[in-house]
From TrEMBL:
Chain's role: Catalyzes the 2-thiolation of uridine at the wobble position (U34) of tRNA, leading to the formation of s(2)U34.
InterPro entries according to UniProt: MnmA-like, MnmA-like_C, MnmA-like_central, MnmA-like_central_sf, Rossmann-like_a/b/a_fold
Source organism: Arsenicicoccus cauae
Residue numbers spanned by region Interaction with tRNA: 152-154
Family of this protein: Belongs to the MnmA/TRMU family.
Active site residues according to the UniProt entry: 101 (nucleophile), 202 (cysteine persulfide intermediate)
The keyword Methyltransferase appears for this protein: no
Organism classification: Bacteria, Bacillati, Actinomycetota, Actinomycetes, Micrococcales
Record protein name field: tRNA-specific 2-thiouridylase MnmA
Class of the enzyme per the UniProt entry, highest EC level: transferase
Length: 363
């Protein structure tokens, strides 16, 4: 097969490209230029789109002896990921930009361009597995499963892939642990073998999400109120708060009962941040929209595992399709679930699909 290997400049994508080549595929390395000002990002930035990263990817490709290109997708990334991120926070939601990037850039824009150029698919350094199941009629169905290494499993951020995208996707690292990947990179002579992992949000190099948002949305002073509606403080922008947040509230006095207080709601129309005790954070019902299915959607009500954060615990639940929405009922209450986050559903290790959390409540 002719395969595009998405090379971020890190150790994972380097080894993924090498394994695809070892498997006999015709591999071309591609680095995505996602920033219009990559030179302004500090070295070893939290992201994967600096000039340093592009150079690291090129050196790996040279060592492998494969063609290498840089594809400029900065405008698409800005519109589909960065502006979406700002709009979601402005609406009082808490988005996950990694899922949006996978959905709209790596497995939409990148894959579409690769297919248009005659390639058969895209390989990335994500830790997940693709399992092929042969049906009774002989048709082959590709399923997305968790990686063998729970500590590195990235199936959550791949839960946005649909069946067609999954059919063209390759994840060569799904059967490995991170130490094994680094050891293999060192054995192959890759200079990135000891390169630190990228963290947090790639387009916010200093990690200051609140300051970054303030620079784009400006100050929007408002009230912080408790669950009774009493004003207990003020804020400079409700977009800087998320459900479940405890630190950085800037309250002048403790609660009467001395217990910690958390953000329990971000009321955008009133420009209010509502705080309350931890008990008010508990929810066990979720309505999700923007559903994405890695195969056929569930038929009727099914038992699933529901994961609500990239590195969160899988919770037992029941789920069903409700028109354009997905309804999820957790067997136990959990805390700190914010609209805008994603719920990814599992059947054992298999990813069923995902949805964006639109509403939560207690049954």
């Amino acid at each position: 097969m002719r395969v595009v290997a998405a090379m971020s400049g890190g150790v994972d994508s380097a080894v993924a490209a090498a394994r695809m080549l070892d498997a006999g595929h015709d591999v071309v390395g591609v680095h995505l230029a996602l920033s219009t000002s990559a030179a302004t990002l500090r070295e070893s930035a939290r992201g994967c789109c600096t000039l340093e990263d592009a150079g690291d990817a090129r050196r790996v490709a040279d060592r492998l002896g494969i063609p290498f290109y840089v594809w400029d997708m900065a405008a698409r990334f800005r519109a589909d990921v960065v502006e979406d991120f700002v709009q979601e926070y402005a609406a009082g939601r808490t988005p996950n930009p990694c899922l949006r990037c996978n959905e709209r850039i790596k497995f939409a824009a990148l894959l579409d361009k690769a297919l248009a150029l005659g390639f058969d698919g895209v390989a990335t350094g994500h830790y997940a597995q693709v399992v092929e199941e042969v049906g009774a009629d002989g048709t082959v169905r590709r399923e997305l499963h968790r990686a063998v290494d729970p500590a590195k499993d990235q199936s959550y951020v791949l839960g946005v892939l649909d069946a067609d995208q999954l059919a063209r996707s390759f994840f060569p690292l799904g059967d490995s642990t991170k130490p094994q990947t680094r050891e293999e990179a060192a054995d192959r002579g890759f200079a990135v073998a000891k390169k630190p992992d990228s963290h947090d949000i790639c387009f916010i190099a200093d990690g200051d999400t609140r300051g970054w948002l303030a620079g784009r949305l400006g100050e929007q002073p408002g009230e912080i109120v408790d669950e009774t509606g009493s004003v207990v403080g003020s804020h400079q922008g409700a977009y800087a708060y998320t459900v479940g947040q405890r630190r950085g509230l800037g309250l002048g006095r403790p609660a009467a009962d001395g217990q910690p207080r958390y953000v329990v709601d971000v009321d955008v129309p009133r420009n209010q941040v509502v705080i309350g005790p931890a008990d008010l954070l508990g929810i066990d019902a979720i309505r999700g929209d923007h559903a994405r299915w890695c195969g056929e959607p569930p038929a009727g009500e099914v038992e699933v595992g529901a994961q609500l954060r990239a590195h969160g615990e899988e919770l037992p639940a029941r789920a069903w399709v409700d028109g354009d929405d997905v309804q999820v009922r957790l067997q136990e209450r959990t805390r700190g679930v914010a609209p805008g986050q994603s719920v990814v559903l599992y059947d054992g290790t298999r990813v069923v699909g995902s949805a964006t959390i639109a509403e939560t409540w207690r049954t």
